[in-house]
Amino acid sequence: MTTSVLEKLCCQIPWCQPAILESTLELALEIAREGREGRRIGTLFTLGKADAVLAASRPLILDPLVGHAPAQTHITDPDLRGTIKELAQLDGAFVISEAGTIVAACRYLDASVEQIELPLGLGSRHLAAASVSQRLGAIAIVVSESGVVRVFYDGQLEAALIPELWLLDRHHAQLGRRDVEGQHHSVDVPTVKPVGRERKARIDVVRVARDTREETKDLRLTS
Fold first, then answer.
1. In sequence order, which ranges of 14-121 are alpha helices (DSSP H)?
2. What is the C-alpha to C-alpha distance for residues 188 and 183, in angstroms, rounded to an integer?
3. Where are the domains positioned within the chain?
4. What is the model's pTM?
5. Burial degree of 31 (CB within 10 A; 0-12, 13-18, 19+)
6. What is the pLDDT of residues 24-80, one digit of tens each?
7. What is 3-171's CATH topology?
């Protein structure tokens, strides 16, 4: 799945902010690619509808993120990424508000299997993500221990992301934007046109046309 498709997904959700979704995905992809302490780990992020997700879940341990200022637990804060990667080794989900604040960690999500259809091979973490996205209208992002990141919304699997391909796609997108900017700059370069020569050329063409008509007329008269 490319970045453009994620942008389309975000456009369909009124409360979704592309920068918040992208930051959450980047963190999930880093966890999938890097793992922790030399091993692959799995975790789950819910984005949006935080109050409803909290009401439909329960803490597995004492929440280590409770009591901190929202600015210190915002998904775009680079100083928070290391903490989230450490907590991702524990069971449970991260709950992120629509504004991008991580309001809770290590939450057990109450999942329902009604009207949920998943591809074969996906386990309980993916089932919980699909269920929460369907019942509560949140976006759910699952990091699998296989290194794949999956995005769920409205009970459907919207994307399956491989970290290396995601990075390659973003690199191509950035190169494309640079090419467009370069084209815009080239259009703005002023050019000087030889107006006098063009005018002279037009006059010569008119004279040739007149001469041709006169020759045609003479030929008709002599015939």
1. 18-34, 50-55, 81-87
2. 9
3. 3-171, 194-223
4. 0.75
5. buried
6. 999 999 999 998 888 899 999 999 999 999 999 999 999 999 888 888 999 999 999
7. YojJ-like (1 (3.40.1700)
